[in-house]
Design a protein that fits this description.
Number of domains: 1
CATH class: Mainly Beta
Mean pLDDT: 94
CATH topology: Pnp Oxidase, Chain A
Low-confidence stretches: none
CATH architecture: Roll
Order of helices and strands: HEEEEHEEHHHEEE
Largest sheet: 9 strands, antiparallel
Structural class: alpha+beta
Distance between the termini: 40 Å
Length: about 220
Amino acid sequence: MPEAQSSVALPAMRVSYEQGSLAEDQLAPSWHEQLRSWLDDATRAGLAEPNAMVLATADPQGRPSSRTVLAKGLDERGLVFFTNYTSAKSHDLRATRYASATFPWLAMQRQATVRGTVEKVDAEETAEYWNSRPRGSQLGAWASPQSRVVSGRQALDSALANIQRQFADADRVPVPPHWGGWRIRPDSVEFWQGRRDRMHDRLCFRLDRDGWTVVRLGP
């Protein structure tokens, strides 16, 4: 039976990228300073959730998965996000110790991709971020069986209600033992600026035995 006619003309969808360019002499001295600069640009431009990034992992059989998470830490050590340590992404990260994360700033015709090994964030850094979260988000982290099959929405609502009762008299909600941060320690960070005729600028910080170097990649 033939497919129904779609109203979405995918082959015709096309945008000419003409907002900017990226030259080597425009880069900051380090990858993390450059990434922070572009994050600042995206924030000032009013982009929704400029710290949202698509995190890609793979399981031990090499089967990839991707999802959107929020970056919550950035310095010379790497890029940090927080999650449930029993989630599918955490199982992947423990197995392979490697991840890739892409910031898709589509409205600015930019993206940045961070690739590297991963490590768990220490308990002190996790607690500092945890204490900055809204109470509702803290309770949700306790209640959610992340990535596991549930019987329906009612099961989730019941789990949250139980956790709300459990901590009803607590001034502060503690960090769950199954929750914390991961840090991506990059060995490459690519900055992509869309250009006309698909001749994009791609500048990549790469780490080797002699330190960081910058290379230009073909579009």
